[in-house]
Amino acid sequence: MRPVIPSFFSLEPFEAWEQEHAPQIPARAAWFSPGGFQAFEHYFALPAAIRFHQNIGPARITARIHELNGQMKEGLARMPNIQLYTPRDENLSAGIVCFDVKGIKPEQVVKRLLDQRIVASTTPYRVSYARLACSVVNTPQEVDTALRAVRDLT
């Protein structure tokens, strides 16, 4: 068996994943869990989260995620100093929008957005990009706020 997600229990599978090769030693059982600290409040919240999801319905949630991330992709695509990497076609992407701000490292983009209380992240790959992800709990106004903040970075 080969783990499909990098584990935090051992550096070997994580480094192999990061360097895009198979681990050099035989797999260990612990490699098949991402590991890390267990946030029990998340476990306790699961029944309510599942009810929330079921009440809204997966089709409406999917449509909302596509709508908000579509708004994000369109807004970023119109900015001259932004390189959008996520396909704009909703059949080819969903909830994560990856981009570069010309002249600013992705880590700096994330830091400067966080300074404005906008949570972004970088992709954990050899070539890293800034990324934003809209979910069912976001609003179109929050997407506009994030777009203004990205625009103001340039």
CATH architecture assignment name of the domain at 57-153:
Alpha-Beta Complex
The total of beta strands comes to 4
What coarse outline follows from CA principal-axis ratios? globular
First and last CA, distance: 46 Å
* SSE topology string: HHHEEHEEH
Output the number of helix runs: 5
Main sheet: strand order: 1-2-4-3
CATH evolutionary superfamily of the domain at 57-153: Aspartate Aminotransferase, domain 1
Q: Which class of secondary structure composition applies to the elements?
A: alpha+beta
CATH class of the domain at 57-153: Alpha Beta
How much strand?
5-15%
CATH topology of the domain at 57-153: Aspartate Aminotransferase, domain 1
Query: Main beta sheet: strand number and arrangement?
Result: 4 strands, antiparallel
Give the mean pLDDT: 90
Radius of gyration: 18 Å
- Residue share in helix: 40-55%
Poorly predicted regions: none
Tell me what you see in this structure.
This protein has a domain at 57-153: Aspartate Aminotransferase, domain 1. The chain has 154 residues and is an alpha+beta fold. Helix 3 (58-77) runs parallel beside helix 5. Strands 1-2-4-3 form a four-stranded antiparallel sheet. It has helices at residues 11-18, 40-56, 58-77, 106-114, 140-153, and strands spanning 82-84, 97-101, 121-122, 130-132. The radius of gyration is 18 Å and the shape is globular.
